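User: C-alpha cells in, sequence out, please.
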C-alpha cells in the first residue's frame, strides 16, 4: 500500500498528538480530534476562528502559532489551557514558492505524558548503567588489570596499564 492510497485525514485524525493548522493570519483551518481533547475546545469553535480570539477568550494563555506568524520561525513553547492542561507545543511555518508565509502547523503533547516518557527513559539509562558497571567490574576482577591515569603527574611519561603477573 502506498501513501497516495491512504486518506491523510484518517492518519492525522488517529495521531496521538494534537495537530492544529492556521493560515498566515492565524485563522484556524484544521484541528484533529486530539486538538479538541487537549485544548478542550470543540472543533466548531476552533475552525474559522482566529487564534488571537481563542487566546482572548481564555481557552489557553498564549499561542506559539502567533509567535511563528510574527517571527516566521519555528517556535516551541508551553501553554496552559482553560481546563488545566499543560501542553508542550511546537509550531512550524510553511511557506509558498515565493517565500511568503502560507500557514502554520502546530503539534502539541501533554507535558505530563512527556515527563512520564522521560522518567522511563531515565530508568532504562540507570538499568544499563548498573549492568555496564557490573560487567566492567567483573571483567577487571577476571583479568587482574592494574590501571593508572595518563593525566598529571604522568603527562610526559609513558605509563601504560599492565597485566599483573601472579
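Assistant: Sequence out:
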Amino acid at each position: 500500500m502506498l501513501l497516495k492510497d491512504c486518506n491523510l485525514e484518517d492518519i492525522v485524525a488517529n495521531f496521538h498528538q494534537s495537530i492544529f493548522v492556521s493560515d498566515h493570519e492565524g485563522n484556524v483551518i484544521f484541528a484533529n480530534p486530539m486538538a479538541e481533547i487537549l485544548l478542550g475546545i470543540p472543533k466548531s469553535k476552533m475552525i474559522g476562528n482566529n487564534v488571537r480570539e481563542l487566546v482572548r477568550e481564555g481557552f489557553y494563555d498564549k499561542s506559539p502559532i502567533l509567535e511563528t506568524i510574527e517571527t516566521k520561525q519555528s517556535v516551541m513553547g508551553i501553554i496552559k489551557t482553560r481546563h488545566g492542561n499543560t501542553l508542550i507545543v511546537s509550531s512550524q511555518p510553511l511557506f509558498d514558492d515565493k517565500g511568503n508565509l502560507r500557514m502554520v502547523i502546530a503539534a502539541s503533547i501533554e507535558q505530563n505524558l512527556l515527563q512520564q516518557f522521560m522518567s522511563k527513559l531515565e530508568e532504562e539509562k540507570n538499568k544499563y548503567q548498573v549492568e555496564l558497571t557490573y560487567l566492567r567490574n567483573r571483567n577487571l576482577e577476571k583479568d587482574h588489570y592494574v590501571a593508572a591515569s595518563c593525566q598529571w603527574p604522568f603527562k610526559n611519561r609513558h605509563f601504560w596499564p599492565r597485566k599483573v603477573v601472579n
